[in-house]
Amino acid sequence: MRASRRQFLIGAGLAGLTAAISIPVWATDSAAGLVSMTSGLKPITTEERLARIAKAQTLMRATGISALLIEAGSSLLYFTGIDWWRSERLTAAVIPAEGGLLIVTPGFEEPSVRESLAVPGTVEVWQEDESPIALIRAFLMRNRLDKGVIGIEETVRFFAVDGLRAAMPDATIRSGASVVRGCRMIKSPAELALMQIAADIQIAAFRHVAPQIEKGMGADDLRAMLIAASTALGGENADGGLILIGEASAYPHGSKKPHRVTEGEVILFDAGVSVHGYQSDISRTMVFGRPADSKQKLLYAQVRRGQDIAMETAQVGTPAGKVDDAVRGYYESLGYGPRYTLPGTPHRTGHGIGMDGHEPVNLVHGETLPLAPGMCFSNEPGIYIPGAFGVRIEDCFHMTAEGPRWFTQPPDSIDRAFG
Questions:
Q1: Count of other CB atoms within 10 angstroms of residue 37
Q2: How far apart are CA 291 and CA 285, in angstroms?
Q3: Which residue from 238, 265, 317, 335 has the highest number of Cβ atoms inside 10 Å of its Cβ?
Q4: Which domains does the chain carry?
């Protein structure tokens, strides 16, 4: 229900894509025989969600926040189990620093919202001629929080914040990002297990599709096969991701020009799936039809070394930005850059990942947050040569007390791009 970055890029028409992808029968047939890898997998329990709420309330009390406002999206799912989309009709939760939470939703959506609510809470509804903000205000007044500090989850839309500020002039409205990040950035063993399965599914889908690629295929053909394989293997929300062929691989998010598979040219895949709400994000770069040439092999080896430098630097207590600095320093010693200029690496070394494909915080210059056990990141220091081709290898990892640990092991050769 929640749109991903890739779905946005697909919908925007990058790389000649269309907003809606129809999977042809031949692509579905190409996934015949694949078996779901999620059988028997357990979703997040009610007990874990209650522990999350308790942790959030502890953080709220420690930082002087009286209540936290969260609207539909991954944070609402994280705390309550409600997987809902955003529209002009507000569905939201209020978590007070003490006591039970409130859910507000349109009246006609109440049965569906109650169906997915996984924790105890009061559900109140508003009708089409009423205001959800009035319900939130009444709840806060009943709990004597109307003059307190109301924290706002960082993705809540302006209209909701502005409405709350107007309805409660005596309250202090401020960011609640530190509370939500303090919970979501540190993944539990159950969360890591779901992310591992999501990663395993995406790798298995890549390996299934790669031998079926044929000369003359376009990105839509490869994407259709990848969606079919990812779905058959149990992946949710599979969209096939970005598939960049030939020169399109020289631009991190592709080109509007159509490209078709050609002998000896690069194909760059960047895709992920979700499992019970948890994401994978993996990139692989291959050469079609014959062994890579010396330039392709060299660039691949340089990117692989960049990944290893990131892992060597990503130790507990190290500021997240130092990971990006270390990789960029190596690339600059090779003549790339400087900094984010091309040819080189125009994007950060990695991003946080969990229930969203991109989450706080990033492995980017200037980020001072120390790395801690339970944090999860992508490691994707691609190198791009405008007008020619690019290489991106992306694998995610999570921090342990002993250091970083891969979800997926990156391959060491472009000629064995999928391990």
A1: 16
A2: 13
A3: 238
A4: 5-30+187-416 (3.90.230.10), 46-184 (3.40.350.10)
Residue entry with tokens 């009061």: 122
Q: pTM here?
A: 0.93
Kindly indicate the confidence band of residue 21, based on its pLDDT and cuts at 50, 70 and 90.
low
Decide if 239 contacts 6 (C-beta within 8 A): yes
The string of pLDDT tens digits covering residues 170-189 is 999 999 999 999 999 999 99
Q: What is the 3-state secondary structure (H, E, C) of the chain?
A: CCCCHHHHHHHCCHHHCCCCCCCCHHHHHHCCCCCCCCCCCCCCCHHHHHHHHHHHHHHHHHHCCCEEEEECCHHHHHHHCCCCCCCCCCCEEEEECCCCCEEEEEHHHHHHHHHHCCCCCEEEEECCCCCHHHHHHHHHHHCCCCCCEEEECCCCCHHHHHHHHHHCCCCEEEECHHHHHHHHCCCCHHHHHHHHHHHHHHHHHHHHHHHHCCCCCEHHHHHHHHHHHHHHCCCECCCCCEEEEHHHHHCCCCCCCCCECCCCCEEEEEECCEECCEECCEEEEEECCCCCCHHHHHHHHHHHHHHHHHHHHCCCCCEHHHHHHHHHHHHHHCCCCCCCCCCECCCCCEEECCCCCCEEEEECCCCCCECCCCCEEEECCCEEECCCEEECCEEEEEEECCEEEECCCCCCCHHHCCC
Q: Which two tokens stand for residue 276?
A: 């019970």
pLDDT digit string, tens, across residues 123-147: 999 999 999 999 999 999 999 999 9
Q: Please, what's the b/e burial string for 119-132 (b: 16 or more CB within 10 A of its CB; e: otherwise)?
A: bebeebbbeeeeeb
